Structures are given as C-alpha cells and as structure tokens.
Task: structure prediction
Amino acid sequence: MSSTGLKDIRMQVMWNRLISVVEEQALTLIRTAFSTSVREAGDLSAGVFDCDGRMLAQAVTGTPGHVNAMAESVPHFIREIGPENVFEDDCYVTNDPWKGTGHLHDITMVAPSFLNGRLIGYFACTAHVVDIGGRGFGADANSVYEEGILIPIMKFAERGKVNQHLIHLLRANVRQPNQLVGDFYSLAACNEVGHRRLLDMMFEAKLDDLDDLAEFIFSRSRQATLDRINELPRGSFENNLTVDGYDDPLYLQTKLTISKDNVHADFAGTSKLSRWGINVPLVYTKAYSCYGLKCAIAPEIPNNTASLEPFTISAPAGCILNAERPAPVSLRHVTGHMVPDLVMGALDHALPGQMPAEGAGSIWNIHISARPVAGEKGRTAEVLMFNSGGSGARANFDGLNATAFPSGVMTMPIEATEHTGPIVIWRKELRPGSGGAGRQRGGLGQIIEIGPLEDHEFLFSAMFDRVSYPPRGRNGGADGLSGKVHLDDGTEMRPKGWQFVPEGKRIVLELPGGGGNGDPSERTNEALRRDLQGEYVSADEVRKKYTRDPDEIL
Amino acid sequence: MTTGTIKPSVRVGADIGGTFTDIALESGDRIFSAKLLTTSEAPEQAVLDGIALVLGEAGLEFSDIDIVIHGTTLATNALIERRGAKTALLTTKGFRDVIEMRFENRFEQYDLDIVLPKPLIDRADRLVVGGRIGAEGDELAPLDETALVEIAGLVKERGYQSLAIGLIHSYANPAHEARARDILRKHLPDISISISSEVSPQMREFERFNTVCVNAYVRPRMEDYLARLESELKTRGAKGALYMIHSGGGLISVETAKSFPVRLVESGPAGGAIFAADYAARFGLDKVLSYDMGGTTAKICLIDNAIPETARTFEVARTTRFKKGSGMPISIPVIEMVEIGAGGGSLASVDAMGRIQVGPESAGSEPGPACYQRGGEAPAITDADLLLGKIDADDFAGGDIQLSITAARSAIQTRVGKAQGLSTEAAAFGICEMVDENMANAARMHAVESGKDITGTTMIAFGGAAPLHAARLCEKLGVSRCLIPPGAGIGSAIGFLRAPFAFEAVRTQLMRLSEFDAASANDILQDLREAAIGFVAPNADGAKIDQETIVYMRYQGQGWEIPVELPDQTFSDTDSALFLENFRAAYTRFFGRAIDGLGGVEIEIVTWSARAAANRPPPDRITLSSATGDASPAMQRDVFDPAAGDFITSGIHARGDLKSGDRVSGPAVIMEKETSTILTSAFDAVMQDDGSILIHRKDGGAS
Result:
C-alpha cells in the first residue's frame, strides 16, 4: 500500500484529534470558570497554534466574537515576550482590547507547549470575566482608561511560578477579586489540559513537531476556502445600515470586493467614533465580518489561519469600526454584532435570494445592580442576563424566535438568576407580532419584565439597540418590530445607560423581532394557520400585512 | 417464594429496541435467548412470542417464570417520532414559551439554515395561570384558582388526553402545582395529570418543564401498553412479577412506571451498562470503559467499582447529527453515557477539505451497507471492515447473509477512494480509522466531562460491531485490556437480569455552606431517603437495603455542580467541615486542584440526592485466567493491520473451538455467529473460564 496514501489518512485523523484537543480545552474552561458569561453563556474560545503563532485549530464551542481575534493575538504575544524569554510552564496574559479581543473584560492567556525541551507550539484561550474594575460593564467611560485595569502582554506565570505581584495588583483594582483570580487559574488550567492532550497525541503518532501536520491542515483549508470563493461572482457590492448608536444614530457602510482568492470588506463611509463605549477595535470588526462571510460562503471549513486568511478587511482610522486607543470600547459588541447583517446585506447583491433578512443583532444584555431600599434589610447583588431578540427570516426558513445571532451565547434559567440577586422576573416569553411579515416570517423577539424583590430597588445598565431602527426585511419582506424599553406604568426609559427602578415598579423590555423575507402574499396558508393557532401573529396582522381573511385560514 | 425447593428461579429479561426485541431467559446457570423483529403496532406481541420461544427451548411454561424484567425504547421512540398523546402544558403566566425559547442559542454556529428542535408541546397547547412562587419557596402571588376552572373547561373542550403542569420554582415549593392538580382533577377525572415537582423536582425551568411534558406526552400510551402486557402475561399463565428497568439502571414496579414513564426513557442502553457492570464485578475490575456498538450508534460509559456513572440530566431525540443541543433535555437520574453516530451501517463520505467523514447517517438494515446488495450504494463501516479482511464474506451472521466484496469495493472506490486519490484498501482503512478516531474522541471528551482518566481502564466490548473495532480503539485510547463476554449480542436483555432494585430521589434546595443548617439538611435527606426506600423496600424481598448520599456542590458563582459523596448519616452543624473536605477532594479529582487563596468564596450545595438499592449477593467471582497453551488457527487470511499499515497473514479461529486458557496471538480473527473479534498485531487474546475473550497488549497488561 502506498505510504503517501497512509500518511494522508494519518494526517486526517490527527487533524480530527487536534480539533478534539481544543474542544477538551474549551470544555475545561466552561466547567471551571467563575464568570457567568463563560459558563452559562459560552463567551469563550480556545485554540492551538504552531511556533509561528499560526492557528491550527479552534474549538467549535465558543462565540464568534473571538474568532480570529484570538487567532491574531498570539503573534503579538510571541513578538512582545520575545523567543529568548519563552520557558516551559510559562503562561502569558493580556486584556489589551487592541491585542486581544476588543475590550478589557476579555482575558486572553497563551501558554507555550514543549516536547522534550523543545518548543512545539502554543495554546491560547479567551474568556469574558465578570468585572475588571473601572466604571464597570457599561458605555459610560470617556476613554479606555476609565473602563478598568489594562494588563499589557506579560507573564502570568514563569516556569510554573505565578506572578504574585500581578495578582496583588489585580485584586486591588477589581470589585470581585476572588472571581477574577479564579478565572485566571481556570484559563491557565485549560491551556494545561490542551497541552497534555497534545503530547498524548504526538506520543501516540510518534511526532516530534507539528510542522507536517500544520502544512497539511493549512493547504487543505486554504484550497477548500479558495474553491468556495471561486464559485462567487466577482465584483464589488455595497450595503449600509443605520442603527441606534448612543446619542446619535450610527451609519455603517461597507463595500465588499470579491476577487479570485480574496473577499475584502472595506468600511469607508462609516460613522466616526462615539463619545461612548460602543466603539469597536478593528480586531473585533474583523472577527464579526469573517463570521458573517464564513457562514454564508464556507460554513463547514474549520477555523484556522489558512481558512481565515482569504477574508480581509479595512476601515479608516477613527471610524467607529476601527476605534483606536484610547477610545472607550467596553460595549463594542453592541455595534460589532451588527457587522454580520451589514456584510451579508452586501453579499446579497452577489448572491441574490440567498441571504437572511436583518435580525435583532446585538444581544440585549442587562446588568442589574440590586440593593435594599434605604433603611431596610436585604441583599446587594450584581446580576447579568443575556437575552436575545428574533433573527432575520432565511431564504427557506422563518427567522429564529428569541435566539442569539450572530452571538453564540446562551441565556440562563430565570430560576438560577433569581437565586443570584433580590429580583423577580415576572415575565419572559415571546413577543407576538414582532416578526417581520414575509414569505418567510422574521423570528419573534421576547418580552421581559423584571422588578426588585420586596424592600429592594435596583439600577440597571441598558445596552440595547434596534429601538429606533428596526431590522429590515429583504426581498419584499417587512421590517421586524423595533425594541422598546419602559416601566410597567408606561414611563419611557432610555435604551442605553444606567437607570433606576424603585421598589414596586418593573422594567419592561420588548426585544426586536427579525425582518421578513419575500413577499408576505406568498406565505402559505398552512404557515399562517400555525402562526394564528400559536398566536405568533394576530388575526389583525393576517388581515393587514398578509391581506388574508383569518377565518378562512383557520 | 417457598423455601426448601431446589428448583432454580426462572428469570426473563425483555428488551424492546427500535429494530429488534431481545429476550434472555435465565434458569440456574443456563441462558436461553431469542432475537425477534420488533412489532411496533403491538410491541407486547414480540415480547410474548419471544418468551414463548425461549420457554420452549428451556422446556418450561409461562407458569414457571418467577420474574420478568422489561426495558423498552417505546417511550424514546414516541418522542423521536412525535407519536404521543394530545397533551397540554399548564405553566406560570409570563412563561408560556420556556420550552420553545430553550437556551436562546444555536447548537450549530455556522449554519444559517439551522432548524431548532421543535418543542414537544405546541404554543397553542400551552396554557398559563396566574400565581407565583419565589426563589426561596415563598408565595409572591396567590394561585389564580378561578382561572383554573375555566382552564378545565378548555382542556375538556379541546379534547386533551394528558396534562403537564410546570410552574416556576415548584422544586422549592410544590404547593401551587399540587393545588392546581387537585382542582383540575376534580373537573377532569379521566385525564392523566403530571406535575413537575413530582416528576423532576430540580431547579432550571426549561429542563424541568420539558421533563414533565415528556412524562405527560408518553403516559397514556405507556399506561395502555403496560396494562396490555401485564394482562397478556397473566392470560398465558405467568404468575411471576413484572418489573421495569429505569433510565438510572434500577428496577421499578409497573405501577410506578405507569405514573412516571419518563423514567423508562433510555432503559435499553442502561441494560447494556449494567451488563458491563456485572462483568466488571465478576472479574473484579474496578475501572471499566463499556463500549457498545451496534448498527447505527456506539455508546460509551465509564464504570468505576462495578457501578455505572449516573447523571441528573441528559438529552434525548437529537435531531441533527447527534449534536448536543439538537434534542430535548430531560432531568431524571440516568446512567451517563455518550452516544455517537457510529455503527456498522454508518456511511462514509468525503468533505470539502478532502477529509473522510463517517456517520451519523446510517444505511440501517434496509438498504444496509453496499455489500448486502439490497440497493445500498454508499459505503458503510461494514463495507470497509469487509475489504480489510475483518469479516468473512461467506460467513457473515453465520452465513445467513452473503456479502459482496465487489459491491463494497465499488462503493468505497466511487465515493471515497476516487476523491482521495487512494487505493480502495487505503480508503477502507481511512474509513475505519476515522470512525475509530471519532469514538476515541467521544470517549476522551466524556472522560473529561466526568473528571476521569481512561488510561488504566479495562474495556468491556459488546454489541454486533464492537468486537471488530475494540482492539484498535484500545490502541487509540491507550487501554491495554479488553473483555468480550459471551452473549454480547443481547447484552441489554441479559443486563436487565442483573439490575438491582434501586432508586435515586433527587431534589434542588440551595444551601450555602457558611449558613449550613444541619436540621434542614437532615430533613431534606430524610425525605429523599424515605422516597428512595419506599420504591425499593416492597421489592427487596427482605434483602438488606444499601443507601448512598450524594450532594451536588459548587463554588458560588460557578454554573456546574459536581457530585460529592457523603456518608449515609445524620449530620450535625459542625459537619459543614465534612462537606467542605469532601467537596475539595471531589473538585481536585475533577479539575486537578481545588482553588486556594480565594478567602471568602462561598461554597454552596445545590442539589441533594439519596439512592437506595436492595443488596444483591455479588456475582460469583471469576479470576482472569492466564494462557495455558497456544491455539492453532483453523485457517489463515490476510487482514489489514493499522499499525503496520498493510495486510498481514492472520490466523482465523472459531470462538466455539477455543477452550479456557487458550491463547490466540494477534494478528488474528476469532469468529462467532453474530460477530468477529479482531486482534491487531499489538494484541493477544486468552480464552476465559466463562467463555469471555480477554484481549490484552502483548507488551503488558496481561492478567
């Protein structure tokens, strides 16, 4: 039997194994992390790199925001630590938004992997921590300096010995030092698990280095990605999108250029920086551009340096999608989550009829800071909830109801949330009528009502978008319903910033629904019957938007 | 039972699977077995026919049967095929869509056309009622009893056959659920009502609501089926008791099964794990990896000290490529195992990167692998096994099915070899490598999730396809020994006969260690112990009842609790130190080290569990035998060896011809009617006293 054939098969097997190794790495992080957003919501990523910092494999578990942001961070580490300072059992760390994944809350850790005293590669992982000091998780800072403590690329541990000065400094600067330090150890442990599994694999396969395997992975992935790009029509395709922003609406503009071996997104024409922390470092813009494009063009090709390489971006310095130091960037996701809709809208001109309509986009995070009413006994607590609106209708399927897109995070059970703080979630269910009408209907948003427990009150940080500008329909489909924020007595609240809810009142969040796809008149009676029976759509809506008689349909 | 009789007890195990119904009859030390096609319309038919068949073989009558132990996939299949009762869910106002909104995430990140699993109960069938219990179990708003009367009217009008009630925080205080049931039952005496605080009193509303929905959905059907089976057995003269196997691997009465049929989900695979656990006990193996591979899936379970690992939640009816998140979660005690789409019928293809992919799509038994020549054109694992010489084309299933090498060759060459630029044999090797690697990865991942290490375990392999792949899987996992018991083809049914009378009761009640309250801890555990013993005692036949106490704990702020074992005793307030100590030990076992230097981080107990099991005499201990002589092969054949990367002349042995103590040296094949055991060049095998085959690495790990 030919030895090249066998070698090829062994390479395929090891590629599979490598993906399994980083999955184990990610799983370890989820199991041990303290941060709510990691363990409940899956806001993390994990990957393995070669000695040059090229990413070989990334865990499927994780969120798109870290895609290729983490991939690009490893070369920064290699450069700044310097090869002469890399030792066995080292572990490096940063949360620099411009060298990590876009805001201070994301901690990235990188560890070298040695075999028989020789460097063979690196493991990296990223996780969103609960608190990093500063003004807290919100849009209110004027610059990154107010958003918390910034850890430049440095050693968390050298030759296995943890840098206690760093720990000391961190503990003094954050609100929940135990949780932060716990998460640092979790991150380090997950790299360690990856390292051990990699050595097992190399021992079994009798490998001394990863060079051949890297070449195999990169050449196969590059070719497969280029094949896909080659099937696309060439040319330039534009799209723009207006979203709420903070004080003023934001205008996002892109020009997508598809050439033989490259898809390039340029964001010239996009609004300038905001005064508030919704600005996006370029790494994060790139992560979500790549995500949107990869979903549409090459969804099943695993993420690695070669499969991401053909996707490039540019944005003028100082626009909101290329925020430079020291712009505030804490809530970069609020703007960044809109990027997939933006680039897929441009791609729609190249691939008409295939792209989904726009959806709610940014996840509706709410941070609640609860406390007893003055003079009463009770509990103080910080509670973070992740909630999703509706996604845009697809070419052949309705949009997803109350499901995160593009974010990959999960929501928490309300029973668990109510244990973490003195609040009551009185309602959390679908928002009928919020999905944009269309041949395929937009996904429904949801309605949430939260009040303080008796004798308590709370402040909440709003980070909501698509309140003034609803998700747009496509191909004749109607827009989704825009979001609303108010108290149960009808008092309007702002969609961004810290606000107060007194005892006895409730905050009501109405999350946006996704846009519809295709002419509503083409929606089948059968689909409308299901809509009516389940009260996803009202009889009135059927009459007005679908121009049909509900009684006949039922 | 009368004393003094010498007549051995006659025990029957009956396992209804999707394709086959397996019957095992044990009388003394003899086992008679039958495999029949499942009769989906009237599943009891195959059971009764099968029992009649084995009784005939054993020369016995229905009236001789002392006990029938039954497990079935009927509940699981009803969920997969959505063939259950017309069911409504009554839930807390404001939470109508919990089972539809799920975790608000996508189980596949990059698929724009993803289809999320459809909720079991449609939105139109989800009704709401006012009233609210708080997180601490206090009443925040009274139950709207007037509305319940209207709801009863609606239920009647719409003709629901079954009703699930799931209210927020009912695990902490079941009063509203119980009251709602009582009111509704008064108006609806003929409708079965299931409430979540009885079916699964655990925190996390999505899982709990879904569990009660599943229970209600399968209940009328399972009640009918079980009643029919009971009466048919009686009609045929059977006087012995009928018991059901539950997902946690223990036995429950038919009456309990009728009220809580959700506990029957996945009872078949549980039987397989018990089968393996029984062999672990017989041979005194304290760390075992059970590996069950059939036609469509493979199941892997870790068994320490002959007790299969259990979990509190699992996912059934996965819709997309067995992907986590594509099914529905159920929170009941269950034998924890990982199931992957890898079986003899799993199909191979080549993806965009030129990588061979295997499964989870399966050729099933119809059309079957290409080599069956029943119209299957895509290459399956069985085709690859055939080309590599692992299966004899002329002697498959005891010669019942003639396999075509030409058809297998053509399927593999067309769909895999050509695209890869590989010879057909190399492509076949690639297919087997990929499926073996997938299973190895799943096993490793499962071990990580369970905080365990695979190295040092002994594998116990059963199911039609497992012996063909076990040795290679051992190589990949660094496992040095594997036991292949006799009767492996009907492992689950035999496993049922070994199941203990056991029950685990579980409840969520948050308690911070700094506020440890021994009195209420004792109360909770006392209730749970009584519940567990209540299930077991009536069936224990006077045997001693073993008890076990497990709490699930975490550092406050973490989202995953880990199981912590505790002594079965009454606690005093100073025992919080014991909880702490055991938690730290368990945490270290899971994650390498407990977290130090976190002064003031709270530790909390989330869920409490008590297990009771009737003490059974341990099975007769068998000592692993060493080889006493070398068996000489009946013939020789070229079989592909993965390590050598080429075909090697291998000895072919018939399992029936081997005597205890015979050594077979790899590379070799040991053939039997249902399957073949493949020894790669790295392994030897030694025949054991009970007919098991022990395979072990040549360079160590021998008995």
